Amino acid sequence: MTPTAPPASATTARPPTTRTEPTARERSSRQVACLATLALALVCLAWELWLAPTGRGTLAIKAVPLLLPLPGLWRYRLYTYRWVSLMIWLYTTEGLVRGTSESGAGMALAWIEVALSLTIFIACAAQIRLRLAEARAADAGSMKDAA
Question: Quick check: 25 pLDDT over 60?
Answer without folding.
Answer: yes
